[in-house]
Amino acid sequence: MATITPTRTTTHPRISGPASYFPSIERTYGESIEHWIELIHAHAPATHMELVAWLKVDYGIGHGHANALVAHALGARAR
Question: Which of 15, 42, 46, 62, by CA, is between 20 and 30 Å from 56?
Answer without folding.
Answer: 15
